[in-house]
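Action item from last week, closing it out:
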Amino acid sequence: MAQLDDRRIFEGVARLSYRDLRSALEFVHEASSVSCSEPFPQPAVDALAQLVRGEFVGYYEWDLSTRVGPLESVEAPPVAVPTEVADARSAYCFGYPLSILRWSSETRALKVSDFMSLRSLHRTDYYDGVLRPYRIEHQMRIWLDAPPGMSRVFYFSRRATEGDFDERDRSLLELLRPFLVALRERCALPGASEANRCDLTHRENEILGWVARGKTNREIAALLVVSPHTVRKHLEHVFQKLQVHTRTAAVARTFANPD
């Protein structure tokens, strides 16, 4: 399955223009530098909305057992959801082609038009109760890795005037998905103790957080889009500042409970 995913991403990259690839790299650089917030950095969502445009773009985390509303949401722009829309979303969720109940572990970027025509969509209860109030005609979603029973998903919604999403939009999202997964994981890293946070730089704390999660230097380098040599030099500086000699000791000292 991983080989098929890699092949699909590679084929998608081949379809992207130089300008698109440059924009993707600029997004990675910009999103990597923002301060993390729960559940996802707002500036990263705003930047992604500029890369794959839609009237409504957002990130949701859902508990699949309840589906009453998202546990967490970061939107550009924020969207007010009336009670009747929330009730319709819960009642008709499974009948929607991009339902979180069907695709919570999917790695592809999917469009409504992959499954039905616009005319068929207009006949659904989900369209009447959830999409029509916002005049949404086209939607694309891409899911991130999530614990069992959870769904983490980005949605991109457009009205009729913007037209449907195309293969360029799909390829960009699938190319960026591994980075988006890594960025979400970074937001869940444990916080360093206040004293040691002052001693270490933001990047050093970030790298040490990945070490605490069991990542190798090569894996950390791939996540941060730097070289393994750079990661190694950062860790050498960490060891010097903390006066330790091993990765285990550095993690223990940095993330120790002050109580």
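Closing note: The domain at 194-254 is CATH 1.10.10.10 (Arc Repressor Mutant, subunit A).
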